[in-house]
């Protein structure tokens, strides 16, 4: 996609989020989405309302503000080079004033350093994209790699992918469709280890819950765990690596086939709006539901935590999922807004 058109999309999207887009701008945004369906995932996931706690909301706002600041810097660079500036500045409501002002101030300071740096000096730069509980995001990296970032996750990456490698860091869960570049491997850093690829599609789970998982859909990846520094675990398409760890020490490593149910790969079903569970304990299922729907789920019964389920669900209706779960097991749910108690 043309970079100018992509930036225009972000501008129109920001105006819609702030409630300040006029009819003509909304019509233009709709036309871009029709012409470029690859932007629809990003649009759908961020436009729908989500319940957020204060910390998640702050992180999302700062992440968004950083993107706005980056666009502001690009405009200043354009003017510096004598090119015409764009005619439709992004406007923000009061909600965005503080994070945007702080990010823009930082961006301007970095810009001054950039414009006055000595030859050969390379300023450090990086982006963070963060999702809250109940939201997802689609990110296109500088090399064309597409990342679908699942709920309650963070991705850090360099803005230009300089040097001989393309490096990102991930906390949480993401699906990567990596652009092939044999000369520059793509490396993902997580708390449990690193994943090295050339061009492939795979899913990574790297939450702080004692389990690290990588599922390969196509291509080839090599995984190096932090406490297995001299050993690479190489996956073939249709395989996944599951490593359990405790206190930064790996307890076990297994290479297993990916799980397929109802013509869906369970490990990547979330990218298609579905949740697939195969013989999973209720405690693991509820942890996933907390991330997807932005709720808190507590157990009054330890026995209920161990009940196991197999099923495929749409990820749009939490109440329906809860009703289905209680049909086959002797459990009850009590819901008070975003807090759910299981008895």
TrEMBL record:
The keyword Transferase does not apply. Keywords: Membrane, Transmembrane, Transmembrane helix. Coiled coil: none annotated. One of its GO terms (molecular function) is sigma factor antagonist activity. Signal peptide: none annotated. It comes from the Bacteria. InterPro entries: FecR (IPR006860), FecR_C (IPR032508), Ferrdict_sens_TM (IPR012373). The chain crosses the membrane at residues 96-115. Residues 129-221 form the FecR protein domain. Residues 274-342 form the Protein FecR C-terminal domain. This is Iron dicitrate transport regulator FecR. It comes from Niabella ginsenosidivorans.
